[in-house]
Amino acid sequence: MQRNALAGHAWERGQRSAATRGPLAALIVLSAIPYAARSDWTPGVEAGVRHDNNVGNAQSSRDIVADSIVSARLSIFQLFPLGDSYSVTVAGDLGGESFHRLTGLSNASVDGAFALKKKWGLGAFAPWARIGVSAARSDYQDSYRNAWIYRATLASGQRFDERWNLWMEYAFERRAARAQAEEVPGLSGDAFSQSSHNVAVDVEYSLGERTFFALGLLGRHGDVESTTARSAKIYHASLALAEDPAFGPEAYAYRLTGTTFGFRVGINYSPTPHSLLGCGFERLETHGDGGNSYTKSVPEITWDYRF
Amino acid sequence: MLVKDHHGKLIADAVVLATPSDPKAAQRAKPPPDAVDQVDKQFVPYVKPVFMGSKVRFPNSDHIRHQVYSFSPAKKFELPLYSGTDAPPVVFDKPGIVVLGCNIHDWMVGYIYVSETPFFAKTEAAGRATIVDIPPGEYTVRVWHPSMEHGEETTARRITVSAEGSASIEWDLSLKPTFRVPRVSGAGSPGYP
Question: What's the CATH code of the domain at B168?
């Protein structure tokens, strides 16, 4: 495939908005951290490296492209306790991802979130529920992928003791991107917009004072985007189709309906009370309409710091 | 007094208590006020021994509000959200162990040991504790630590303190592994759990 060699051209072809806005916004947030660290606002920093063995969600081996991604995120939030039972969290973060090969997918994002949480009782072991909404804007190196992402979540959980923590979450996510020109008359060019229902069940288990194990089960139903060469099989099942030059000149993104199941496992270690090193692995299996199924595996190393 | 674990590691935050055989010797004037601070979203000190009847303040040196509580039978209390030194002192009038928590920051945990005897001390990082101003006489000496595997009764020793001299004791404690609520957890997005 010429795809890998051509992917780098995305840098020149794409708009440079993400590249310029990201560092500027990061500078603003970084300059605010010393103030925020002394106020009710709690800043945090996250960084990670992951390897995605199927970035384009392709079924056929000839279409599969793997890549390594470096990510960073600056976050800030404030928790407003409303008496014993309720609290409101206002949060914002600024993130960026750099793709090693598929540079057109490198992006910067800004996110704002609001959540209301109720605890039934005092203390760490009281059950809780949380409802939240968030809105994010992601700007890609290849700007045709730019999108607004809206998310509404409902979560509930309980820490049973110092060792066991369990929670579950439902989320509806809407990703709104600009529709591209129709490649085929009558078939939408809006391949990068998606709606999906997501559920997750997560459990953490402490192995020691500084180490805990995490396991998550994931389910998702809704739109998926699969990037492949032209293919009748995927074409007949697709709801939308658009060129996807980040993967090469012959690549097309198809929007399908699909159901995903997966899991993630990880082990986390706190070298200091404020920081957490994580090593995780995620495996996802998606069954798309028309027999267009694919899998992906994503090992990841992360570092979190919260003031 | 020296406190170690079974591997010879010196143990900090162990409370050493000397109970006189003569109950009259344990009587003491009104105990002085004490304090447990909150610094960087942690209780400081982690373990605080106090004499029964002590008034303890909970100043908040952080720039965020805390909500300190305890469910322990020895003292159930809650200090509604506050910052600075606004919270009223809490009187610890029953002996026992009081586990402290913060309703906002789940990983915050601390201990107050409410002692029936005025003769106590806490080990420092080097595992040593010294009980000063102890009158001569017969004493039962015990040690307590938040992670000890067996009850403090199993550590009891009888000693005699003479008018001129002092007494030294060493303990080898068996400690349980400790598990603390992590400060950074996946459940906390956005915000802490």
Answer: 2.60.40.420
B74: tokens are 């020895």
How many domains does one find in chain B?
A: 1
Spell out which residues of chain A touch residue B78, defining contact as CB-CB under 8 Å.
Answer: 84, 122
Contact between A191 and A181 (Cβ < 8 Å): no
Q: Does residue A158 belong to the interface with chain B, where contact is any CB pair within 8 Å?
A: no
DSSP B37-104: EEETTEEESSEEEEETTEEEE--B-SSS-B-EEE--TT--EE--SB-BT-SPPEEE-S-EEEEEEESS
CA–CA min distance B181, chain A (Å):
6
Which structural domain range is residue B111 located in? 2-11+25-125+143-176
- Inform me whether the C-beta atom of residue A214 falls under 8 Å from chain B C-beta atoms: yes
Determine, for residues B190 and A115 on separate chains, whether the beta-carbon distance falls below 8 Å.
yes
Going by C-alpha positions, the residue among B170, B184, B189, B188 that lies closest to residue B41 is: B184
The answer to whether A182 touches A190, Cβ cutoff 8 Å, is no
What chain A residue is nearest to B61 in terms of C-alpha separation?
A: A38
**Shortest alpha-carbon distance between residue B101 and chain A (Å):** 7
**A38, A158, A165: best to mutate for the B interface, most B CBs within 10 A:** A165
Residue B188's contacts (CB-CB under 8 Å, 6 or more residues apart) are none
ipTM above 0.85, yes or no: no
**CA B98 – CA B91 distance, rounded (Å):** 12
| A89 contacts B190? CB cut-off 8 A | yes
Has residue B131 been placed in a domain? no
B87: in domain: yes
Domains and CATH numbers, chain A: 3-306 (2.40.160.40)
Query: Residue B192 domain-assigned?
Result: no
Query: Token pair of A113, please?
Result: 């979130």
Task: Identify the CA nearest to A255 among candidates A180, A190, A168, A164.
Answer: A190
Q: How far is CA A232 from CA A167, A236, A241, A249, A286, in A?
A: 42, 6, 12, 18, 19
Domain contains B136 = no
pTM over 0.90: no
Instruction: List the pLDDT tens digit at each of the 193 positions of chain B.
Output: 788 888 888 999 999 999 999 877 777 777 888 999 999 889 999 999 999 999 999 999 998 889 999 999 999 999 988 989 889 999 999 999 999 999 888 889 999 999 999 999 999 988 999 998 888 889 999 999 999 998 899 999 999 888 876 778 889 888 887 777 777 665 544 444 3
Q: Give, in order, the Cα–Cα distances in Å from B15 to each of A5, A8, B183.
A: 68, 65, 26
In angstroms, what separates the C-alpha of B61 from chain A's closest C-alpha? 11
The residue of chain B with its CA nearest to that of A36 is B63
